[in-house]
Amino acid sequence: xxxxxxxxxxxxxxxxxxxxxxxxxxxxxxxxxxxxxxxxxxxxxxxxxxxxxxxxxxxxxxxxxxxxxxxxxxxxxxxxxxxxxxxxxxxxxxxxxxxxxxxxxxxxxxxxxxxxxxxxxxxxxxxxxxxxxxxxxxxxxxxxxxxxxxxxxxxxxxxxxxxxxxxxxxxxxxxxxxxxxxxxxxxxxxxxxxxxxxxxxxxxxxxxxxxxxxxxxxxxxxxxxxxxxxxxxxxxxx
Length: 238
Description:
Layout: H1 2-6, E1 12-16, H2 25-33, E2 37-41, H3 50-63, E3 69-74, H4 76-86, E4 87-88, H5 94-102, E5 111-112, E6 114-119, E7 132-136, E8 141-145, E9 154-155, H6 167-186, H7 192-214, H8 219-237
Parallel strand pairs: 1-2, 1-3, 3-6, 6-9
Antiparallel strand pairs: 4-5, 7-8
């Protein structure tokens, strides 16, 4: 319902993961958004790579340039893909974006979309940071995307969306959150706010993740882990 309220009167593009259709997420969102949903990207793969992103990006700007909001529903890869999509170039060509990222300098894109992030994992915290990583496996390098416009304008945390996560993904994404919290502590920009969030996240993850691994259907443990991952993401962004 929050998705409907946050996008009321606005056209929406949905970015999600391949299994979302079988899980009923796409049907739910289509029913919620109706004809406001004008574009769908449902083939997001882990660790967004330029080989796949190029076609997705250019199709988005050709077919959905009039949309106002991009809704990312999924793990860190879906949210990172959405962050790349919302940054428009003059030409609508992906290679123009890559050239800007390759300079390593910040820039102001000529156009961009608003991003709403709905994580389905308790992991990367990408829903509360501006950062996205774009991989180029062929060239063996990666690009870091972080602009003012890549901050999500809203994040919706719903632990019920995490109930279907298998054990291996639950643990690996939980360890991702743990690593972000640990990195926040030894980062040169650490401060009392980020330290407080990070320490709290670390304590919660150590306490909660082993229990969750043994009881994947627990709503209470999913909620606790979602909050811990959110705190880790907030520590990282602060």
